[in-house]
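Now for a concrete sample entry.
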Amino acid sequence: MVGYVGWTAAVGLVLAAILFLLYYPPFGGRSSAGQKKRYRQSAQFQGKQFRNASPSVPFQANWGNTKSLLRDYMKGNPNVKPAVPLPVRRLDPDVWRKHASSITWFGHSALLLRVEGVTLLVDPMFGPAASPFAWIGSKRYSKELPAEVEELPQVDAVLFTHDHYDHLDYSTVRKLKDRVGRFIVPLGVAAHLERWGVRPELITEHDWWEELEFQGLRLVCTPARHFSGRGLFDRGRSLWCSWVIQGSAVKLFCSGDSGYGSHFAEIGRKYGPFDAAMMECGQYDPRWADIHMLPEETVRAHREVQGGILVPIHWGAFTLALHDWVDPAERVTKAAGEAGVPAATPEIGETIPVGTGVYPATAWWRGIR
């Protein structure tokens, strides 16, 4: 009898866990049969999932890498996050409206863009932790944001690069869903937004190299070298991408998350040169170099994409790797200086005007430990 009760309890726990993984809202939605039919027509969809153009794995799981990673985690690093909250500049509407085109960094990969009067949000992760659970996972370094969702100017469109928690946040989407004119995403991401209450008619999904016209801008869904997934069973079910944003006189590039690859040069040949490129430079490790660039590779990729001013992103908000939290900024600015690449280093919330040649370049993080 005791064995039966124990077995029943175990089965019940397993079923409860499965149901939780399937129905807990932050894990996202599941694509419909019609959506899946379209995805199978993509050149990036092979077998049962999306894949990179070149062989790539999130982690090189050999014994040496596994042993060294466990050793590094056990050892720890007291400098993986700042000892005090990072300073944040509040978004100044007057400064923001002053320029027809500008870039405002919200930390990590979240960006508020103004491109010839059109307002775009890119990867607006405004939540407190890069996790499906606000009380666990890597907590945000800053105590506040440059602006809460309710304080933002009218947003014309939101662009997402992929569905990882540090880019696509349930609580943020719930706040944005009735305040945005369009959600523009790579293939497979619509299911998450629809489950969270975004009306399907406001969402457009795109494959690599697809172009769309939006309020006088040309937006291009371009390749990246990464992966996707929010749960245990959805690896590769949605696509990942970078974005080209082109107006009549201004062109911007946003790399999304990506390992180094030949796609940067291809994007540069087709759409460059750019006035500015927002390039990931953090949360890296040689053991997962296929899917996140080292800072020196960031500068190389920036040159190949013909990026103009380099705006480093994917740092300054969450600890997702074992390096010192300041290392991405130190290494990418050093490499940029050696390569003759102009690098902007805005504080969180600082607005960079585009097309003026003026950009912040102070090492503000050096006074924070």
Remarks:
- The chain has a mean pLDDT of 92.
- The longest helix spans residues 2-23.
